Amino acid sequence: MENKIVQGKSTGEWERQFPVISDIVSTKEVFWANPKVRKFSSAMKNISLGEKDVKDAEKRLKRFAPYIMKVFPETQKTGGIIESPTAKIPFMQRKIEAMFDEKLPGQMILKCDNELAISGSIKARGGIYEVLKHAEDLAVKNNLLKENDDYSVIDSSEFRKLFSKYSIAVASTGNLGLSIGIMSAKLGFKVYVHMSADARQWKKDLLRSKGVTVVEYKEDYSRAIVEARRQSLQDPDMYFVDDENSTDLFLGYAVAAYRLKNQLEEMNIAVDENHPLFVYLPCGVGGGPGGVAFGLKLVFKDNVHCFFAEPTHSPCMLLGLVTGLHDKVCVQDFGIDGITEADGLAVGRASKFVGKTMEELISGCYTVKDEKLYMLLSTLIDSENISLEPSALAGVLGSVQLLKSKAGKKYIKDNNLKDKMENSCHIAWATGGSMVPEEVMKSYYRKGRDILHRRFPDR
Ligand SMILES: *Cc1c(COP(=O)(O)O)cnc(C)c1O
């Protein structure tokens, strides 16, 4: 690799200082344990957000539940609360053991955000939350709404008329645009979604069918977000959902943790000192996985171990955390192309806000080859009949990476987890998939099967 200068140091010097960078740059799969991770209580001393903020977000979502239930009838069964099921996946666990020749102790669980109502991905948490909060702020300011009102009144021409005077802009690789676009259009806002080149055609078509203005770019996400920010700065009535810096998005995602706690209790799954919980979260810019992981740390403290999962060709959060440069480095600085079929994770530069906030709370990161995402995709359909989009499979490889890699083994040993692995629970956060059109899903499935046949010709 040419020796480019990144923040005053050559890439060669960065590699010597942090040897894991060599493997990252060669787009090899890596598992990295975060040397800065600390006990929950000491890490929290440096973080301004806390339980109160997440509870506040949870209450706001409850206030909106009657409205959500009214305008999205598919949420009636959960009383207007947008939440996904949590499922055991024992057949998949056995398949993975065979595929990677690694015994997986404990139980494997899938958090099925692919089934989230309204937009079929993890973005239905943070994205929808931020739009609702903005709508509430405007309605309260205009004396149309009070906090103890029945929020189903928002489904009226009076409110739509108010919101139609305002607009919302966002940049997206696809799913954030879907959730912001669908929710904003439903409320009556004008919406602009700036889509990077990675965004799938069906996502753009779907948004346009809902009256959303989709602006397309030939470049990656970084360009789309610059343009979206620029557009919103020119219009005082335009609200910009800032995926790189938004605390509202982050808090909307974090609410998931309290709900997961209840679900695990209902499933009789213990999380305590002798029953560690491992959670593997597909990571793009960082808001979704960072917010969820933050909530999980608030709930389970030192008994939960959270890991970010990224494609080998777009490991922006990993590079940001390893070097401590966060948003001052992008994958292209190190000669990594940023090209991946995991469109939800195709981000070259991570959020500084998330990197900084999670710096001492996140246990580590690992990367996955696109090929494996497809292998896991078709295997999950065959074993459990669950269909996810490629990005959403990145979490499924977590336990294998933890148990197989040298750095993962060391993590287990250093944290005295070895004897507890039989009692452990491993949650792969399945971040999206239910909105993928059937014919697109079929082509993903075939691709996965083809890769498997090439790798294991006699199975
Ligand atoms: C957006 C997205 C992620 C990652 O969320 P970030 O906030 O970008 O880190 C993961 N999986 C899917 C399917 C997504 O759409």
UniProtKB/TrEMBL annotation:
<protein>
    <recommendedName>
        <fullName>Probable D-serine dehydratase</fullName>
        <ecNumber>4.3.1.18</ecNumber>
    </recommendedName>
</protein>
<dbReference type="Pfam" id="PF00291">
    <property type="entry name" value="PALP"/>
</dbReference>
<dbReference type="InterPro" id="IPR050147">
    <property type="entry name" value="Ser/Thr_Dehydratase"/>
</dbReference>
<dbReference type="InterPro" id="IPR001926">
    <property type="entry name" value="TrpB-like_PALP"/>
</dbReference>
<feature type="modified residue" description="N6-(pyridoxal phosphate)lysine">
    <location>
        <position position="123"/>
    </location>
</feature>
<keyword id="KW-0663">Pyridoxal phosphate</keyword>
<dbReference type="GO" id="GO:0008721">
    <property type="term" value="F:D-serine ammonia-lyase activity"/>
</dbReference>
<feature type="domain" description="Tryptophan synthase beta chain-like PALP">
    <location>
        <begin position="102"/>
        <end position="402"/>
    </location>
</feature>
<comment type="similarity">
    <text>Belongs to the serine/threonine dehydratase family. DsdA subfamily.</text>
</comment>
<dbReference type="InterPro" id="IPR036052">
    <property type="entry name" value="TrpB-like_PALP_sf"/>
</dbReference>
<keyword id="KW-0456">Lyase</keyword>
<dbReference type="InterPro" id="IPR000634">
    <property type="entry name" value="Ser/Thr_deHydtase_PyrdxlP-BS"/>
</dbReference>
<dbReference type="InterPro" id="IPR011780">
    <property type="entry name" value="D_Ser_am_lyase"/>
</dbReference>
